[in-house]
Specification:
With about 200 residues, the chain is α+β, with helices and mostly antiparallel strands. Helix content is about 35%, strand content about 30%. The protein has a single domain, classed as Aminopeptidase (3-Layer(aba) Sandwich), CATH 3.40.630.30. It contains 6 helices and 7 strands; from the N terminus they run βααβαββαβαββα.
Amino acid sequence: MRTAIFTRLRAMTADDIEQVMEIERESFPSMWPQTAYRRELQNKLARYIVLSELRPPDTAPGQPGGVWGTLRKIVGADPAASDERLLGFIGVWLMVGEAHIVTLAVRESCRRIGIGERLIIACIELAMEAEQEVVTLEVRKSNDVAQRLYEKYGFDRVGLRVRYYTDNNEDAVLMTTRDLFSPSYRARFFRLREEHRARYPDLWT
């Protein structure tokens, strides 16, 4: 019988660094060293969020606790109670009036099933909770797929950083949302969030 899978968003911890680097290795030509992530986790301006899947340990019928006992162990934050695998992560710096996305990556085998979008939604929610006015980011000029996703969430192209990426000197497109607290933006965001929840319910458990 197939083991149930549950997902959750949570803050990244130092224990996640090894899996984060696995995902980064699949996603980017160059990587941050482990020490960079350890410093980032101590950075008061930085927030790192991971989306993980939890595979609860098998519980045979009749054992104390049963399925609901297993679920109670999973709800909260007890990775030891399950086999936890990171699906993707996002990092953002909360600055004066601006939340700046510094990294976003999804495990290669888990792409195109809504995970990157789920992480963007979480980042925008975080920015709203922190009362930031806009969310900004840089994206490779050649990455049309990512740019279309950002545009869907109200990011506009506002500039170009020439030769921004050191691995191949590619330009970066600078993108920023409209005012997060404008009624039009909030209506658009909450509509898209509910559409994503309806399409990918497993990412909202």
